[in-house]
Design goal:
The structure is a homodimer. In chain A, 65% of the residues lie in helices and 10% in strands. The first copy, chain A, is mainly α. The first copy, chain A, has a single domain, classed as Arc Repressor Mutant, subunit A (Orthogonal Bundle), CATH 1.10.10.10. In chain A, strands 1-3-2 form a 3-stranded antiparallel β-sheet. In chain A, a hairpin with a 7-residue loop joins strand 2 and strand 3. In chain A, helix 1 crosses helix 6. At the A-B interface, helix 1 and helix 7 of A face helix 1 and helix 7 of B. The structure holds a DNA duplex.
DNA sequence: ATAGTATTATACTATATAGAATTATATATG
DNA sequence: CATATATAATTCTATATAGTATAATACTAT
């Protein structure tokens, strides 16, 4: 699984570059993905959904803020926490992202039936739950 | 799968540390793993088996050489290539590694039957083959 | 009130990862 | 033989990732 992770990460970076998406890279794209689902989220929320450490997100979001992809919005009710929201600029890339995401899946799941994909998906979810139940 | 990769990478690092393995870290352990299988390999061989880029291995092997885990041995028949071999020091850790690897699988596959594990394994191999057939 | 604990995020630091360009060597071809 | 091409590894550079330590704020129990 580590190997697949590396190969798909590199392929994903390449696909983005080849299709002229130079506004963000692969890792940033994965963060944008969860923000497209829900525009306003705390850093802890994003950490949970991406399984990234919060320390990683601090610097990632710094860079993405510099690129004009996201903005930090202080929460007035809880001054410890900060909301992150995507900018209009980032929103414009969603369609292209979805298309490339499909291309990626095309490589990934070549020769798989829909049932097999669903099957694998359920295995992966179970593994994620195993980590969760270990408090990881 | 990216999420699982991150969680298991962090868990793997933690397991090694908790069990007092401070001679190498998780990423280095994965390289040692392929060298335990076959002691003498070129850097290109290792790159293929780990799906790491050769540039990554250059610096990884530098560090590991510094730690006394591996040695570079020039190939006398082909001066372009370099063999990498594990040291006796590294060999001593194999048993502990295997034990921790089992622990890791225990978390990963909790609640899985043997048949399900084999099933998932075959899906993952197919995905790896998909990348290979794309020349990735 | 306040002391202790939990939560949220960041700064700092170290390692991992990989692309582009480069160097050295080997192999193929005219 | 000379030149072009392929292969193996490295250097250089940039980003991603996460751990430890820290700071600020919120919550809880007395």
């Amino acid at each position: 699984m580590t190997q697949i992770g590396r190969l798909s990460s590199r392929t994903w970076e390449r696909l983005l570059k080849e299709c002229g998406v130079d506004a963000f890279n692969g890792a940033q794209g994965r963060i944008l993905y969860v923000l497209w689902e829900q525009e306003m989220q705390t850093i802890t929320d994003i950490a949970k959904q991406t399984s990234l450490a919060k320390t990683t997100l601090t610097s990632m979001l710094d860079r993405m803020e510099g690129l004009g992809l996201v903005e930090r919005v202080p929460d007035k009710n809880n001054r410890r926490q900060t909301f992150v929201t995507i900018t209009d600029k980032a929103k414009q890339y969603k369609e292209k992202y979805d298309k490339l995401s499909d291309d990626m899946n095309g490589i990934f799941y070549k020769g798989f039936t829909d049932a097999e994909i669903a099957d694998l998906d359920s295995y992966l979810r179970r593994i994620l739950e195993n980590f969760e139940s270990e408090g990881i």
